[in-house]
Amino acid sequence: MEKQTMKHQVKYLTKIISSSSQRFLASFLDDSLITKKEQEKIKSQLIRAASLKATTVLQVSDTITEPVETLYGKVKYHPSNETTVILKDEKTKTLKMLPIHTIRKVSFIEPYHSKIS
User: Fold this and answer.
1) Do residues 73 and 57 lie in contact, with contact meaning Cβ atoms separated by under 8 Å?
2) Please, are residues 111 and 51 in contact by the beta-carbon 8 Å criterion?
3) What digits encode the pLDDT tens for the residues 80-106?
């Protein structure tokens, strides 16, 4: 009887170890969770920059391997279109529609303050 319970406990332990190692490997190989967190952070920074009407600098690239293009201006964000942001260039007065997934980094200067975010 004791031998059978010991065998059952060993099976249970190997099952737990196997499933946890499989979950660890799957989460290690899956970058979507990190990407979602980064996209939410970028989106919140864009919303804040738009609400402050701050001059914003964006680093944009379509893929990670492409070189980054740096753009600056005022950001316009509308909650009905959560996947796109509009950047108004202050010098040329042009508008650019940028998909949020192409934005790699957001920096802005709050008006009337010297704080950089």
Assistant:
1) no
2) no
3) 888 899 999 888 889 999 999 899 999
> H or E segment at 95?
strand 95-99
In the predicted structure, residue 30 carries a pLDDT above the cut 70: no
Sequence letter at residue 40: E
Tokens 């990407």 belong to residue:
35
Tell me if 58 is assigned to some domain. yes
CATH number, residue 66: 2.30.30.100
The H or E element spanning position 59 is: strand 55-60
Using 50, 70 and 90 to split pLDDT, how confident is the model at 29? Answer: low
